[in-house]
Amino acid sequence: MTLHDLEENIHITFTDKKLLERAFVHRSYLNEAKNLRISNERLEFLGDSVLSFLTSDYLFAQYPDYEEGILTNIRSSLVKTNSLADVARTLGLGELLLLSHGEEASGGRNNPSLLADAFEALLGAIYLDGGIERARTFLTEFLLPKTKEIVDTKAYVDYKSLLQEIIQQQSRVSPTYQVTKSEGPDHAKTFWVQATANGTVLGDGQGKSKQEAEQMAAANALEKIGKT
Q: Would you say 69 and 58 are in contact if contact means Cβ atoms under 8 Å apart?
């Protein structure tokens, strides 16, 4: 895959090709490249702010009856590392990353954090090259459609905090979470987790990360006690 392929896939032709190139320069690559001195970190910084504004603007308009706290939680779910990394994989951004030999050998092209950073850097480059409306169009096509599933499944709810509040009211102890099983390669593991309190298993859950599995275990526990 080439940068030209990416332009075709996202329906954007960059005026400043250097911006597009820079979006994929990981800082580790600078140690080995003689002709590059700037990584994608500044673009990532800018893209993060553009992402926050445009997702906030979208959610504000799309869900006029939702309170600030719920909108914040939905936005957090939408722009979290795994969510951005999923979109980055769909677009093939990992193939375009310029990495050091060591970073690549350690699976950097599939690293969720690096993929999410590349997505934000690309968004920053799109904004600089084409303005806020082009950045909005890009997000509207590739990220914002994920919102419906997040809202429909209530993936934005912090089930762990809710379960902790309920359990502490009853027994003044906090639930604990234990990984019971994990499967898959390092970059694509699935985790199984049990939530327990006072030696009693409250619920089970699985997810693509320990945090996601813990949330699912807490949600399962809340469902069992009729609190969801």
A: no
Report the DSSP beta bridge partners of residue 182: 191
Q: Catalytic one among 44, 48, 212, 214? A: 48
Q: What is the pLDDT of residues 193-219, one digit of tens each?
A: 999 998 899 999 998 889 889 999 999
pLDDT at 92: 97
Active-site choice (120, 129, 212, 214): 120
Residue in 115, 35, 12 with CA at minimum distance from that of residue 4? 12
117: annotated active-site residue: no
Per the CB < 8 A criterion, the answer to whether 51 and 80 are in contact is no
Q: Quote the tokens at residue 178.
A: 């234990």
A 10 A CB-CB count for 220 gives 20
Structure tokens at 31: 């140690």
Confidence of residue 39 (pLDDT cuts 50, 70, 90): very high
- In contact, 201 and 218? CB cutoff 8 Å: no
Q: Is 120 annotated as catalytic?
A: yes
| Residue 124 in tokens | 């920053």
| CB 94 within 8 Å of CB 25 | no
| CB-CB contact of 94 with 110 (8 Å) | yes
